[in-house]
Design a protein that fits this description.
six-stranded antiparallel sheet; Jelly Rolls; single chain; Arc Repressor Mutant, subunit A; about 45% helix; about 300 residues; globular; alpha+beta
């Protein structure tokens, strides 16, 4: 392979051999990955990974999720809808949900990929539809993910703590793409908005109030509500409830906590209120959800 990316901070060395199908993946259904990457999954990132492929053809798919591809080495053809785009080292591709999509190369390639749930948190991404550009944070994104993947295989406490910090940083880096897509607000206001939403995703159990969120953004409560509805299509408290139900679903699936403890862990003192909201937003009661999805 003739190409490589090089900066003062990091060099992607040419790979002498690339095995077909070699991947390192963090997936939201992997309980071990959650030890070091919980902030990613809290933010509704479904899967993120590094992979090496030789003469690769993914086949054409259409999925209801946001998809990023960051090419680290080689050249690749990306199909987006009815168009095919050729990308090179350091290019990032965003593909909006329910768009025909494929990756294909005639030689060895090395790339990073991210699939994200199509939720209100990431809704602004769709405003720009799909795009390709040279990615200015290529080295940072790779370094963060590389450190998280390394920590996944390391039982050291300090390593895992650092990985959790890197996971938060990776979420913020992706949230910057959301801010760029939001052309309706000033860049400072938009970034502040997404920072608040990121905080909600990481601490949904906190006693969030409209007043506190408005003060965080230095705006009035009415303007706060206007901004949330404009950017995310829902009210601030709807996002809080959604993130609480998302965390509750994980606790019911992966923990042995009693229902009362799950309720407290997502910010509800009343089990009745929690159960009512969970059934309203998820479709079934917490007890039925646990019976259906509990991981042994």
């Amino acid at each position: 392979m003739n190409s490589r990316i090089e900066t003062e901070q990091l060099i992607f060395q040419e790979k002498k051999t690339i095995e077909k199908g070699f991947s390192e993946v963090l997936g939201s259904d992997n309980i071990f990955a959650r030890e070091v990457a919980q902030p990613l999954f809290d933010s509704e990132i479904i899967i993120i990974g590094l992979t090496e492929r030789l003469d690769y053809d993914s086949g054409v798919t259409k999925r209801n999720m946001h998809r990023f591809t960051l090419l680290l080495q080689g050249e690749m053809d990306i199909r987006v809808g009815q168009r095919t785009k050729s990308i090179r080292c350091g290019d990032i591709v965003y593909v909006s949900p329910n768009t025909l999509f494929s990756r294909r190369s005639s030689g060895p390639v090395w790339f990073l990929y991210i699939d994200i749930e199509d939720s209100v948190l990431w809704k602004p991404l769709k405003r720009n539809n799909s795009y390709v550009r040279k990615y200015e944070h290529c080295m940072l994104m790779f370094s963060l993910l590389r450190n998280i993947l390394d920590a996944k295989n390391n039982n050291g406490v300090a390593t895992k703590v650092l990985a959790l910090q890197n996971s938060h940083a990776l979420v913020n880096l992706l949230m910057y793409e959301v801010a760029l897509a939001d052309k309706g607000s000033s860049s400072i206001e938009s970034l502040a908005m997404h920072k608040v939403v990121d905080q909600i995703a990481h601490e949904p159990e906190k006693k969030w109030t409209l007043k506190d969120m408005a003060e965080e953004l230095s705006v009035s409560v009415s303007h706060l509500t206007y901004l949330f509805r404009k950017i995310y299509g829902v009210s601030p408290m709807e996002i809080v409830i959604k993130q609480r139900m998302s965390k509750a679903s994980r606790l019911l699936t992966y923990s042995e906590l009693k229902l009362e403890e799950v309720s407290e862990n997502v910010g509800y003192e009343s089990v009745y209120s929690f159960t009512r909201l969970f059934k309203k937003h998820i479709g079934i009661s917490p007890i039925k959800y646990r019976k259906q999805f509990k991981k042994s």
